[in-house]
Amino acid sequence: MEPIDIGLIVSGFMLVMVVLGMRVAFAAALAGLAGLIWIFWAKKGYDPSAFVWALTVAVKTAGQVPHSKVSSQALSLIPTFILIGYLAYYAGLTKALFEAAKRWVGWLPGGLGVATVFATAGFAAVSGASVATSAVFARIAIPEMLKLGYDKRFAAGVVAAGGTLASLIPPSAILVIYAIIVEQDVGMLLLAGFLPGAVSALIYGGLVVLMAVGYKELGPPVTGFTWGERLRSLPPAMPIVFVVVIIICFIYNPFGGDAWGTPTEGGALGAFVVFCMAVYKGMRWKQFRDSLMETAKLAVMIFTIIWGVLIYVRFLGFADLPGAFSDWITSLEQSPMLTLVLILLAYAVLGMFMDAIGMLLLTLPVVYPAVIALNGGVDVAAADSAFGVSGTGCAIWFGILVVKMAELCLITPPIGLNCFVVAGVRPDISVQDVFRGASPFFVADAITIAVLVAFPSIVLWLPGLTG
Predict the structure, then answer these.
(1) From CA 119, how far away is CA 96, in angstroms rounded?
(2) Helical ranges in 320-456 per DSSP H
(3) Residue 269: CB atoms within 10 Å
(4) pLDDT (0 to 100) of residue 456
(5) pLDDT tens across 32-51, in order?
(6) 224: left (phi over 0), alpha (psi -120 to 50) or beta
(7) Which residue among 40, 145, 312, 371 is least packed, with the fewest CB closer than 10 Å?
(8) CA 65, CA 186: separation in Å to the nearest integer?
(9) Please, what is the Cα angle at 354 between 1 and 75, to 5 degrees?
(10) Four-residue CA torsion sign, 274, 279, 280, 284
């Protein structure tokens, strides 16, 4: 049996395990180890005496993966980004953001929903975790909306969907993971996420207004704020801007020349600044300990998924499945853009059964080379490419597209993690109600994806300023 056949069989076996409920990290690691054993044993003609040798080589090969990949300095960004979000909550930045957004846009139909979307977008700029964003605003925004008579499904859906913005707006843990998998510059990808994140937030806000206009019972506007009250709400929310500026200045020197520091240093400095703010605001030892514990739990979960999936990725390399898939994609006699749309639709379906990080880790080693080849290769110029972007630009653009698809997975049943988080924080709202409330935002995400596909410059403009 050829390695490519082994790769297809083992990959199918792994997907079955995931659908049956096994955690992605363990399913991928088990499939990868079994596949490595199979390939090495097949090279010896399935000689029974060679099985122990194949097992030994496979275990050594798999054992080298976690340390060699996870020791990458870029991955140290993940815990610092997550920590920034939890510390910002204890520093009172989330309440200040929500209050400012409420005073400025609350007069709109469904105004508290719009305020929640914009506040989650602001919080996403200092938090790298969608789960943390949803959990924080489930505590802050939902009680405010319910107090004013908002529909509970609508309120919960807005918070769950708004939390997904943390996947796209830097600092983003998923963007860092994507950059490491496809070996692209982390700073460029983080910069690329800003404008698409802002576009997504605006489309979310527009959808909330349209829903509130069509169904007035969803949520009334909030009126009565004077211009003085609005202006006084801005200074407490400004520390968010300060932290974002610190991180971006370290990733990209706005005055030209070399960057002031690495993304890792920017994330660490951002965490320190927010820590100082939290201490100044009265954070106690218990709150600090809780933020560290929550950061550790989430970071360990992400790293465990990475470890398991990287073993599977090593197996894919031996099976040459990425190369075969790339050749097949480029041989299709149809429009490259149609192929890209079908790939994105496949992500939408796959996201119903897998978590966002696991999905990207499992698919990108196969899908990414195919998309780059479809565009014309790594070194293709924009004028000669299929999608109108250069090889490097395609890597960044496609990354934003798949991360946006990963956002959709966070509110897609039956796995949608953000919906479970909101329901966990608010026991009075069932997870079914949260899913129903979040379902209209599928339309908003589809519109956002269409805009980003049609206008790649939205993604590439900020990274282009560094060139």
Answers:
(1) 9
(2) 321-331, 336-350, 356-375, 391-409, 417-425, 431-438, 441-454
(3) 18
(4) 94
(5) 899 999 999 888 888 888 89
(6) left
(7) 40
(8) 21
(9) 90
(10) positive
